[in-house]
Amino acid sequence: MAPVSPRIRFKKEFKELTMTILRFLCLSFLLTSFASTAKTGEMPAEQQLAVRYIQAVTDHDYQALNRYYSRESIFNDRTASKTYTGRRHIISFLRRAHQGVLEYNFNIEHMFNSGSLVVMIGSYHYKGPGEQFGKPGKIIDLAIPGVTTVKLDMDNRRVSKHEDLMDYQTMVDQLAVQ
Amino acid sequence: MAPVSPRIRFKKEFKELTMTILRFLCLSFLLTSFASTAKTGEMPAEQQLAVRYIQAVTDHDYQALNRYYSRESIFNDRTASKTYTGRRHIISFLRRAHQGVLEYNFNIEHMFNSGSLVVMIGSYHYKGPGEQFGKPGKIIDLAIPGVTTVKLDMDNRRVSKHEDLMDYQTMVDQLAVQ
User: What's the Cα-to-Cα distance from A92 to each of A65, A104, A144, rounded to whole Å?
Assistant: First the structure.
């Protein structure tokens, strides 16, 4: 075997170590991504419907929402003690709340269902005008932890009840520094 | 300056790199711990009461639970569609459910409140006899993601309503391999 200088051996060992670290970091990243990605293909039908419905909410797709709600649907923000009943009132509330919004999505970190009751845990990301939040003339950026449960009517593919639990204290803390 | 051999330099650089990695890992660990630790000192009174109540539940402290519930208290597992009303029925249910349990705790990952409504997101850890789960003669170990909300009566320091949303599918998956 040809003799190897300590300097070359160092470079080799250093390179190997770097590769190991990189491999470890990539794996951690992949595992984290997998854990937080909702894989639509394997999801129960109830969760798929809930995800599509939430997308209609965050995309301001009022035409789709019109089909998801019935005259009996209930939209309840328990942490704000606000309830709206029937598609007309719910959609008119959502139109007001989402006026001028630039970015809006729900990053679902964990989701499960028990029959037609779907639970989504994650955080709502909101970027838009600060008027509604006491910050006129400013664009604000918020990530509000929240739990949204939807009770579905699977036969008619409708939302019987939408319930939000939102961490408004975190929102207030984020607003304070913007 | 005394000449330094490449072998010694390698050892020194390797040691420094190891220390940097260790420092990075320690820091990551600390940050993660801080993020998920509920610091009782800074917590709103409602969250403190909710945490103490949940501890009474997971510690099987029925004497304390007797004080937390009134005759009107409601215990509702929405994902199991089960409701118990009044301290007598709730405690008798908890006694049945927790028979023979070896370890039981709720690892709260995120908590927030809106007035007297407290939301706790985390996972319930359960270790105990498998009889109730169709695994007789076995000791089973479960970590069930869940959201528990408690509506408090702060004047009387009581729990008006306890509501659970549990990821029973994850529980079933965990049972399948035990």
Answer: 11, 17, 22
Is the minimum CB–CB distance between A33 and chain B shorter than 8 Å? no
- Report chain B residues whose CB lies below 8 A from the CB of A7: 6, 10
Mutation for A interface: B9, B21, B119, B164, most A CBs within 10 A: B119
Tell me if ipTM is over 0.90: no
A112 vs B: CB within 8 A: yes
HSE, side-chain direction, 13 A CA sphere, residue A173: 8
The answer to whether the CB atoms of B5 and A6 lie below 8 A apart is: yes
Q: Summarize the confidence of residues A136-161 as an average pLDDT.
A: 97
Decide if B155 contacts B122 (C-beta within 8 A): no
Q: Rounded to whole angstroms, how far apart are CA atoms A31 and A22?
A: 14
Residues of chain B contacting residue A167, judged by C-beta atoms under 8 Å apart: 110, 112, 119
Instruction: Give pLDDT, residue A35.
Output: 41
Q: Which of A8, A11, A14, A121 to mutate to test the interface with B (most CBs of B within 10 A)?
A: A121
| Beta-bridge partner residues of A128 | A140
Overall average pLDDT of the B139-157 stretch:
97
Instruction: Flag whether pLDDT at A1 surpasses 90.
Output: no
